[in-house]
Amino acid sequence: MKLSARNVLKGKVKKVVTGAVNSEVIIELPGGAEMTSIITKTSAESLKLKEGSEVYAIVKASNVMIGID
Amino acid sequence: MKLSARNVLKGKVKKVVTGAVNSEVIIELPGGAEMTSIITKTSAESLKLKEGSEVYAIVKASNVMIGID
Amino acid sequence: MKLSARNVLKGKVKKVVTGAVNSEVIIELPGGAEMTSIITKTSAESLKLKEGSEVYAIVKASNVMIGID
Amino acid sequence: MKLSARNVLKGKVKKVVTGAVNSEVIIELPGGAEMTSIITKTSAESLKLKEGSEVYAIVKASNVMIGID
Amino acid sequence: MKLSARNVLKGKVKKVVTGAVNSEVIIELPGGAEMTSIITKTSAESLKLKEGSEVYAIVKASNVMIGID
Amino acid sequence: MKLSARNVLKGKVKKVVTGAVNSEVIIELPGGAEMTSIITKTSAESLKLKEGSEVYAIVKASNVMIGID
């Protein structure tokens, strides 16, 4: 599937923390930066996410804020 | 200000496209990947964003989806 | 690509309204209900969306509110 | 209350999964498609959601992504 | 309609700025604080929003970030 | 850091409810209105949020819906 989302960053799962409803997925990007995603536990299981899984972190442009120092 | 947002990526503005209400801001991350942000035109002006501005792309973890091949 | 998003509804583009930065895409679901999506103009062009295009409307579960009468 | 949200789909609750903070609500749309919503446990309790409750799934247009095959 | 959204703040429209696709609506809260909302132009017209309209600003709890000094 | 977010409301933490993955933070605004935020447990801990903490509730304008009676 091709997506309208403008931000699709390739990375590798570093850690999955599972709750009753949601899971927290920590993704390591090339270069060492990290992204954190909260998805449903059902989705994390359905995608079989675990340490080392190759994934894309996907963000809609309207969900990206900007900050400056 | 220190933020709850888990995803704060440093980059440099590559391009700003301005509409009547919103602006599209393209941010170049170190390593060459790009992120796109939609913010209000008023915010883009208030932050004085232009090509070369040093910025942070900020994303709340609940707004990060995951995809796999 | 397989997505974590829990809501993926198949439909057909009914109308695209294009602004300077964003496009509004009206999608007709089977049965006649409609969904409206706002994506960047660049995404709408990149997906070549036009009346009749077959698309998926994709929504992260954390972005679905619930109302009752 | 009349809402600005462009996407208001009527359905029936199929299942509620309750965590410490959030609840997952699965909604069956007419025709058999399903939508999943994550709301706070407090909201799910306040709306007295349970299997069979008639509800609306509400999504802001800016939270609808588009995908194509 | 009763909503799952945890944040429903009453206010009065101070200004509407209209673009091709979206409208920016500035809302004055009691006490003088302001909130800004971006909704589709179609929604702003359908709700007949104009200076002085009494409205609710509605935000899903998962869309509220927290910052500290 | 200066943010693009248009909605930054000062308040005081009234209550923190902690789950396995997320925390619910109830914020009291001056005047007595309340806002509820869901952030990751890790963020709540990293910001050391507890009853009485002075915080800002931050909302991107594109995440504010509007309702009328």
Automatic annotation (TrEMBL), chains A, B, C, D, E, F:
| Topology versus the membrane | Peripheral membrane protein
The lineage's top-level taxon is Archaea
Major location, coarse class?
membrane
Keyword Transit peptide assigned: no
Q: Which GO terms describe its cellular component?
A: plasma membrane
Q: Which Pfam families does this UniProt record tie to the protein?
A: TOBE
Q: Which key words tag this protein in UniProt?
A: Molybdenum
- Subcellular location field: Cell membrane
Gene3D superfamilies linked: 2.40.50.100
Q: Does the keyword Thylakoid apply?
A: no
The biological process GO terms on file are: molybdate ion transport
Residue span(s) of domain Mop: 2-68
Q: What is this protein called?
A: Transporter
Organism source for this protein? Methanosarcina spelaei
